[in-house]
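wait is this the right file?? whatever heres the structure
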């Protein structure tokens, strides 16, 4: 397959300069990893950064699950990833995609500022938006005690009081998971009963360490100016002390701009046909915006980054094997891409 790809690569006719080989939509861990891998394969990828350059990791305080980095802040990690991708030849544009025309190749990407670009392939890595409470204090303390992912942030709250906001299985699963770190857990639910399958319900009721407050609404997140210290419910004078607040109100794939050209589920997640393949050949999806084969999105930065790399490899293969008419290697480079390390330097 690789030899075939290389042969095609060297016999490709030139195409117009203004058609990109690959446009990557999103600059979080998935988009930046895709950019790094694609740049090393000489695809000269263009990353569209979107409204949140760097993605969700920018809001993360300390990251403790990135291999080789026992602790690193989210902004530092994402800054390094961006610099690394840029140093290998990835290009960046500060813009947001408004829509796409995937009906004919090259595809057309339309931007919110009215401009447009043509591309032979696309990687969508536009992430998710968590459903928020929308109360005072939430924006101020986002990432400073307010968390979404217990696997990522759970260890930061060892032996500390935490609150889980939500009423469904997501909230219960998060509360049960956090038991390994703390025995001071309160679920605040706006429902009057536990909204979960019988086995989860039974597990929850058996846990005396988890307190549930029903029919309640978080109306304010309180802090000391630096980190979260508690929540106020139902605008009352009482404050529930908490060092951490886990939101479990659901997530939404950021795909409202994709239209109906791709298979997308009710929660906005791109439905994949294989690891990174969307329903449109030449269009790939990576990171939290896509569902996995298990029907659930990967939530970790590392899994997002891994799928970004896989999407870049898939795009390279697509360009070489399927498209067959793309100038994947810039003409002036005239170098061999090593099929073992994807480098032009070895
Ligand atoms: C507070 C917090 C703490 C976290 N802590 C950890 C942790 O410790 N460890 C861990 O593994 N994970 C952690 N996570 C999860 C981690 O941030 C995500 O797994 C990761 O960011 C997902 O990467 P992604 O590239 O798929 O999407 P995102 O990071 O969400 O990036 C999406 C990108 O797409 C762009 N975009 C969206 N729409 C458009 C558009 N229309 N046009 C162009 N661009 C667009 C956005 O601007 C953004 O750049 C945390 C998340 C949060 C919120």
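ok assuming it is, sequence goes like this
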């Amino acid at each position: 397959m690789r030899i075939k790809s290389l042969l095609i690569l060297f016999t490709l006719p030139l195409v117009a300069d203004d058609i990109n080989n690959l446009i990557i939509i999103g600059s979080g861990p998935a988009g930046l990893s895709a950019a790094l891998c694609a740049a090393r394969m000489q695809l000269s990828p263009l990353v569209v950064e979107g409204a949140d350059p760097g993605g969700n990791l920018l809001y993360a305080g300390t990251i403790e699950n990135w291999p080789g980095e026992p602790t690193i802040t989210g902004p530092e990690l994402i800054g390094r990833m961006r610099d690394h991708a840029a140093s290998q030849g990835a290009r960046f544009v500060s813009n947001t995609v408004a829509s796409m025309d995937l009906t004919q190749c090259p595809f057309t990407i339309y931007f919110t500022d009215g401009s447009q670009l043509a591309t032979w392939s696309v990687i969508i890595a536009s992430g998710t938006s968590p459903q928020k409470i929308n109360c005072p204090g939430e924006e101020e303390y986002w990432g400073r005690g307010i968390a979404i992912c217990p696997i990522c942030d759970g260890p930061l709250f060892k032996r500390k009081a935490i609150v889980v906001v939500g009423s469904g299985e997501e909230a219960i699963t998060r509360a049960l998971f956090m038991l390994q770190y703390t025995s001071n857990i309160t679920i605040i639910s706006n429902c009057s009963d536990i909204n979960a399958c019988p086995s989860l319900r039974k597990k929850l009721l058996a846990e005396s360490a988890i307190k549930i407050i029903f029919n309640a609404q978080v109306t304010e997140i309180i802090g000391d100016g630096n980190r979260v210290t508690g929540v106020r419910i139902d605008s009352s004078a009482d404050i529930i002390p908490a060092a951490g607040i886990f939101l479990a109100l659901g997530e939404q794939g950021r795909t409202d701009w994709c239209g109906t050209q791709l298979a997308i589920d009710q929660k906005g997640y791109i439905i994949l046909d294989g690891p990174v393949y969307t329903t449109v050949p030449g269009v790939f999806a990576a990171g939290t915006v896509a569902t996995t084969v298990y029907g659930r999105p990967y939530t970790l930065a590392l899994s997002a980054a891994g799928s970004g790399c896989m999407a870049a490899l898939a795009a390279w293969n697509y360009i070489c094997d399927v498209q067959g008419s793309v100038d994947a290697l810039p003409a002036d480079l005239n170098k061999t891409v090593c099929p073992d390390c994807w480098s032009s330097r070895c």
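The chain has two domains: 2-129+251-323, 132-247. so i think its the right one actually
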